[in-house]
User: Fold these one by one.
Assistant:
Number 1:
Amino acid sequence: GPRRSGPQLYCDLKRRTRIRTVDGTQEPFSSLGWAHLVPPRPLDQIWTPQYRTCAVVTSAGSILNSSLGAEIDSHDAVLRFNSAPTRGFERDVGNKTTLRIINSQIVSRPEHQFSSSPLYRDVALLLWDPAPYSANLTAWFLKPDFNLFSPYVERRRLRPQQPFYVLHPEFIWSLWDLIQDHTQDQIQPNPPSSGFIGIVVMMSLCRDVSVYEFIPSLRRTDLCHYYERYRDNACTLGAYHPLLYEKLLLQRMNQGTSMELKAKGKLTLRGLRDLSC
Ligand code: NCC
């Protein structure tokens, strides 16, 4: 797609992306009674009044030795990903967690112990699965990438008070379309990373969003995650996910300084709600 300026990108993002979750109004979920299973309050209203400042903490190894913990925790709300822990890493990543985005591997693979691990308690949860582009919901329900539906139903019954949503595949793919439309190259037809999805969700819910180590700082490393020894620079640049393109796009929207980007791996993004386009 043609190269657009920062303000145009903001307005395009606002116009084209509406957070959408599976709400039980469409088949097969309506027949399965999901209208009564999902949280009564829609995701874009879970925080009323709206949070002002939000932090997104990626799981990149480059956040190690950053001492960003206190700065991260000073935000009103903090988003983390998948199985990323805070315990033992507080100095660098903080300890507040308001929302966690998890992919369908987390709820379906036994090693994550989704039903018993404290990581997934006392936070709002957003679950997604890489459904094929334009698959209808019934096809997806019958054959998801990882089985997310039964663990979701079980958790909703067990903990009805926990805000827990499944992202609608159309929302995921609208983000892919957006990335492709703003990128010269043909990108791979795989969904965006949890990181990109989470950043857009927070831009929809918050006034201001600080993102840490999505664009790597000068601490850049091939250490995949701050909480594991595994090394692979595909974690930072992408292989399956169009991660490099996600990063180039968001860097164009940065409202912060290049100093902050280098020293903290920090992107400052504006929330979409108050944007006048
Ligand atoms: O690794 P993952 O992501 O959990 O990381 C969360 C988000 O942080 C950003 N990130 C991470 C590492 C890094 N070096 N640089 C980064 O920028 C990315 O934006 C990333 O999305 C995912 O997106 O859900 C992913 O999940 C893992 C894995 O499923 C979970 O960690 C659970 O074990 C995927 N890895 C594999 O499937 C092996 C990963 O591809 C994407």
Note: The mean pLDDT is 96.
Number 2:
Amino acid sequence: TDAIIIGAGLGGLLSAAQLLQRGKRVIIVERLNHSGGRFTAKTFQGVQVSTGAVHMVPFGSSGVLATMLRGLGIPHRLYDADVFGSFHVHGKQYRSRGLLGVLTFLGPVQSLGLLRLGRLMFLTALPEDERNLPFDQWMARYIKVEKNPQLVAFFTSIARFALSVELDQISTAEVVHITKNMFRFGAPGIVQGGCGALTRQLEQQILAQGAQIMHSCEVLQILHEEDRVVGVRIRQKQSQEEQILTAGIVVSDIGPRATDALLESRRVTQAEVLKQQQPEAEDESNWPGESVPEAVGLKVHILSDISLIPHKGIMYCLDTRRIAGMVQPTNSDPTLAPAGKHLLISHQVIQSNNVEEERALAIADLRQLFGPAFDQHCKVLTMGTYRGEWPVNRMAQGTDRGGRSAWQGLYLVGDAVKPSGYLMVEGVAQSVNRFLDLLAE
Ligand code: FAD
């Protein structure tokens, strides 16, 4: 074996496909009994219920992931959004074909504010001292926040939906970089068959090309001699049998925290991470605090008898307490739900340590967004929180570490090492591009 890949998430699968294309022999070791990580789905009551993603690829069919899939010859189809988005504000849904459509709900004063910010973001270079300023502070330098509530809510809901962060957790340079990429690559797209169809295709191709995927098998240790990695120690879940695999290249798709632990032969468990992140019992403060690097969220899958969002893009929610945005992916691919039904998925950032309250606020928001239609026509299928070792983003946008490790032969891929400006699975694909550059050095 030339390369061992830890984790069969999207980052691990793409890395395997790229290495195979370069004639390497590859083994993927995956703890779970299936591939795909946070980018796959299970069928539940006829619905594609995902393990993470809302079936959406941020830069659609022109993006980095789509380009990589084409280069690898992986069959797939993406349905690009037909609108820039819609915006639920003032109790109504405003549909916006292009960015300027948002001026209809912003009104004259706030529209001027948006144009001013837009000019500073895109037509001039950001001054050095503004690059690392949190975006909320930067905005407050150029507009009066109290006079621009919907404009602030516009940026807040996009950051919460697309990145699962608040505006004080992301730098201005990162917001500018991401927004430029959104314009450069284009609208997000829904994956035909859902995110599980995409990772299954990748898996099939990798297997057909001779790679081995060891499911239900956990990497317990990354082995090294001096400063070079030489292989891994693994354990089969069923037999509890341990085995050593050797290779000169180890690619980790599990983020720096878990990778560092494996180098010391330690395991990072979900329970341990959550315990460390819980505030002291008497501490009333919210979490995640600044010390928590990952982005956390709550996602709801809803099945509806009637269509509630009339387009293929994202509906950003500016007048809700928690839900930042929603999609109705069955508008793109009706087979994601039983015939005649509509799948809706909402996403929000978890803002307090009280998960029950967060769930109740999600339901209250859904009632506010859709009125009596929600109770008459909708059924909540699942409501899940994503944090610890199964977060929305392993490292919050803009805080990611590079893919190079201190160990020769050890590389990191995945959403903990997304290069700046590339969000979610676009960042995963771009991390694989960077890994290939490092490998070629
Ligand atoms: P993972 O998918 O986490 O893969 C890592 C794999 O490693 C896992 O399968 C895990 O089981 C395995 N593993 C861990 N430890 C070990 C070990 N010791 N030994 C062996 N195997 C191990 N992105 C989008 O682009 N669009 C979206 O719509 C979107 N929505 C999201 C909504 C939610 C609620 C969440 C949670 C995420 C969303 N994302 C979205 C983000 C996207 O899902 C992730 O960025 C992406 O799937 C991460 O892939 P990965 O390969 O980096 O990691």
Note: The chain has a mean pLDDT of 92.
